[in-house]
């Protein structure tokens, strides 16, 4: 339920406690109670973020197959690149700086974290903001997502979506996606059975370059 319908860490926590009960078990209408619950959610989220950051800095996370290859190719082909994440800015910056490095980050035209929008995925707001800031048409965009929530957000923004699901999201519904892959694929690895390139994402570019 949380994976498929609720975007954002704090939003997931609040939905869970609203549905199954809060630890304080007090009447929810009193302002003091709401203030306590707000502080409780912030505390939980801060603790979660600290654990998450430790996993990243300790080297337990790695970039998924094909991501760096496709980033580099897209930049070399002159495409506009953006990252639109539902995570908070602190977590996003740590992951990107640790796993991508400054040189690759400099190739991106835009990086948006969940903090910049009032409505998170599956709402399309973050993709609409990216569209406006990049001054592009939604039909010219291809979004790479890994979940049903992300797919829904991008489709509602009028963009094409390619899914590279994770083991956690593989069973989700991806109806409406232009294509679904287990990864973007890497050359000379066990992920080489399919290679998602810029030409795969933008067939119209492949047609132009083949003339």
From TrEMBL:
Transmembrane segments annotated in the record for this chain: none
Molecular functions (GO terms): hydrolase activity; metal ion binding
Keywords for this protein: Hydrolase, Metal-binding
InterPro entries on file: CbbY-like (IPR044999), HAD-like_sf (IPR036412), HAD-SF_hydro_IA (IPR006439), HAD_sf (IPR023214), PGP-like_dom2 (IPR023198)
UniProt superkingdom: Eukaryota
Protein name: Haloacid dehalogenase-like hydrolase domain-containing protein
Lineage of the organism: Eukaryota, Rhodophyta, Florideophyceae, Rhodymeniophycidae, Gracilariales
